[in-house]
Amino acid sequence: MSAALLHEHEAMPDPAIEAVLTHPGPVLLDLDETLYLRNSTEDFIDSARPAPLALIAMRLLDFIEPWRWTGGTETRDVWRVRCIVILFPWTRRRWRARVHVLAASAANTPLIDAVKARAGMANRHTPIIATLGFQPIVAPLVAALGLPPHIKIVSTRLTTFADRRNGKLRLVAAALGNETVRRALVLTDSTQDEALLSACARPLRTVWPQAQFRPALSDVYLPGQYLVHIKRPGERYITRGILLEDFALWVLSSITLASQPVEHVVALLFLLLSFWAVYECGYVDNDRVAVRLEHDPKVTGAFRDGLAVTPRWAPWIWALVSGAVGVAILRGVGRDALAGFGVWCAVLLATYGTFGLYNRFDKTTRIWLYSCLQMARSAAFVALVPINVIGAIAIGAHVLAKWVPYYIYRAAGNAWPEAPHFMTRLLFFVVLTVLISFATGIGTVWTWSAAALLAWNVFRARHELRATVRTAVRLDRQERAAR
């Protein structure tokens, strides 16, 4: 259905309610954001406890995207609800206890009253609820909304992907018959119900002013949410920018000096979580300061919509707890661990303070503070973990490769230069390695660590290297070709 047809079928709430009362044939009503002014699937997932663990499970699903193998995003909610039911089985009981509170606050009372009135008319069909919500979720909700107890519910099954994959039209037609659909009035708020609206006798699309879509667990804080949803949406920044870059550098720069490599990597992972819980606060502060003090703040629409929870103290709790775990893995429990934890807290405070200064100074001054932030990202772990010379070279090359484009960006204009970052870092790494080998001898850098770091830099720069070789032109051959 085209946008023009959808617009033609739009109706204001009062005429839509009147149509529900007077339509002579069957009436099919959507549930989510229509009879119920919220989303039942999101609210069910939101009922899972402990909430942080449920949110982690949802984030892992979003990372893996298993719905790619079952029919696409239409089946995403099947995976999400199944995950909650399996991992947090007590959620069903909590949902049945919670629906009465939700129904009281989010019931579409005028429409529900119209449904009750129509159900009492002798010459009218009792309305039917047609929803893509899941039967175990919507059944107790419909009862809590105070709808007639005999009202028919057509909903999707949790045991199959087919219902979600096939769409609402096929679901309703299979349950009620094509003739019922052809004679029906369909009232929904969703543009995803286009096929059903096209097939019915009277299509009505009504957006109710009080309706809201509230994502599940949106009031639960988890480190990384601001990066994923606000600062760098759609970039997979945690994977590409943090794990494959910062964390890989941390590990490769120090692993050869670790007596217990597995425990060492796990400890670094906890320290990374601790560091980024605080560093992310700097991003939050950066956007808030920009909106408050800058004439043309560069913030995403998601920031203006307030889609991510950014509490004041929860990030620090995450940072301190995960930092303590990391230190304990590295140093055990005792005086040495306590001293190490104090050093790590100083690193976190210094990083947060530097980010705060960066956010509040002019853009020219930020050039120099930016190098400090990149140094913190690349080398914070050095406060607790020893590194060798080649590791220090790799960190230096990484910081320079990050800082040079920023310097050009601030000094030359308002656009980031299209510089090949990975190839630039590889160049810095090779140059610094050669210089250090001249000064200290080849044995200083001729190590397994150097080989691993070189291989990592080459691998990360492989596409840029290939593009450079492919576009390289020899001037003498170009001149001969011109002749």
Structure description:
The protein is mostly helical and 483 residues long. The relative contact order is 0.08. The protein has 24 helices and five strands. It is 65% helix and 5% strand. It has two domains: 3-205, 3-Layer(aba) Sandwich (Rossmann fold), CATH 3.40.50; 234-387, no CATH class. The chain has a five-stranded parallel β-sheet, with helices on both faces. Helix 19 (363-379) runs antiparallel to helix 20 (389-412). It has helices spanning 3-9, 13-22, 40-46, 51-64, 76-87, 91-106, 109-119, 135-144, 162-166, 168-176, 178-183, 194-199, 225-231, 237-254, 261-293, 301-305, 314-331, 335-360, 363-379, 389-412, 421-440, 448-460, 462-471, 475-482, and strands spanning 27-29, 128-134, 152-156, 185-188, 202-205.
